[in-house]
Amino acid sequence: MDDLVRDARDLDTDSSAYLDFHRRYTAAIVAPIYLQQYVSLNSTSQSLDVRIFEFVHEALNRSQNLPVYLPLLAEDPNQASAWNIAQDIRTLAYSLLASSTSTIREYKRKAQGISPQDIRPYSDTDLHAPAKEIDGRVGGLLKWAKSKDLNPSLLWSLFALSLVLGELNTAPSLPLVSRVINADFDYTWPFVQLTARFQAAMYSLRMLKQMTEIWLAVNQHIQSKLRGTLSSLQSQMANLPAIADMFFVPGQSKRLLADHEQLKALIEEIYVSIGVEVATEQVSNKKKKRQAREAERKKRKTEQRQQSSR
Q1: What share of the chain is helix, strand, coil (3-state, %, to 5)?
Q2: Closest Cα to residue 196, out of 77, 98, 20?
């Protein structure tokens, strides 16, 4: 061992033999060719989520097989995957960068396991129509939100609600939706699953926003209807909340985005706008008794406080 250490210390690192050995085992760091082609990507790509950057990297390298590992969500294993929500939004996002001949494979939960689903992107000629449709929907949302003076977290939560409702056969009750939006965790499977669906919708919008930014950076000098639509969409999605404001952790303190009555009225408007019947919550007798006991307890506490203050 001592001989090996001595030989290492005495090694001439400038010798041709050592330099030849060094070249064999030192890989040159080469930037992806697309970063050389599109200089503006250097700054735009810095803000991408890791999973989205993986897709962007493969798509810009013209890969024909593009895997997408969707984030793991806390879900009810007996329900369909929450990632079934906003599939059309993600397909549009993928299509902005993937070639029409490529195959996109999403990996998401199915029952107790993970299952891949192949997605065929839009062709170049078909791409503008869905982009214009979502741009119009977002524009309508922002106009409505401005008239209501809504903050970004609330307005995008309500847009996510519209995406969720569009995919469900049975609409969730207003009280449940209200609790999810305000992060008022109630430890039930319906709450957990609806929360996961909201998160899938919000993250799909985030994917669209980031891939729109990449498309615009790559196609700076192209003048087309698609560019105009995507520029509008990028501007309208500028205030999409960060992940920390989109997702909440079960058990954390509530985030009160709106008081009960205001939120109830807003949710009802979303239901009506997409033609969904407003659902009411079915309360079991057991829950009614518990609520009555809680109301009585609060009443006694108020009376005691009033008596002690006299």
Answers
A1: 60, 5, 35
A2: 77
Cα–Cα dist 258/285, whole Å: 29
pTM: 0.78
Tell me, yes or no, whether 113 lies in a domain.
Answer: yes
How far does the chain reach from its first CA to its final CA, in angstroms? Answer: 89
Alpha carbon distance 205, 90 (integer Å): 8
| 173-228 pLDDT per residue, tens | 999 999 999 888 888 999 999 999 999 999 999 999 999 999 998 888 888 999 99
Structural contact between residues 71 and 203, judged by C-beta atoms closer than 8 angstroms: yes
307: its two tokens: 């008596």
Domain assignment of residue 64, given as a range: 1-280
Backbone torsions φ then ψ of 238, nearest 5 degrees: -60, -30
Domain membership flag for residue 288: no
What are the pLDDT digits (tens) for 95-129?
999 998 999 999 998 888 888 999 999 998 999 99
Total domains present in the chain: 1
Is there a domain that residue 168 lies in? Answer: yes
Is residue 91 within 8 A of residue 208, CB to CB? The reply is no
Chain-centre distance of CA 2, in angstroms? 57
Residue 295 lies in a domain: no
Ranges assigned E (strand) in the chain: 65-69, 103-110, 113-119
The Cα–Cα gap between 277 and 268 comes to 9
8 A C-beta contact, residue 106 and residue 117: yes
